[in-house]
Amino acid sequence: QVQLVESGGGLVQAGGSLRLSCASSGRTFRHYAMGWFRQAPGKEREFVATIIWSSSTYYADSVKGRFTISKDNAKNTVYLQMNSLKPEDTAIYYCAADDKKYDSTWPTLRGDYWGQGTQVTVSS
Question: Could you please report the per-residue DSSP string of 26-55?
Fold first, then answer.
């Protein structure tokens, strides 16, 4: 059974940085793509970033130039480096993984698997 476990959330001041990690366990072969979503209080969940097995990356316009998604295939882990954080980045951040490309939602993942979420709070 696949499990995604996020870590690295916390409280940071505006302009600061955080690095989130998401480790996938439960099998030996890699996912087609992994990525991050976030959900702020009272808002719908939104796409943040996706990385596929070839290392191509995709970002929401709101985080381009500030966030970087990367992966370590040996560890089945994906990272989200978040720099120049803003109060509007405050949300629960969720890791997701897909085992194939879903054209109807690409580059947003459909979410074959989900992590439990990690809280990121940016104070002004």
Answer: S-SSPPSEEEEEEE-TTS--EEEEEEETT-
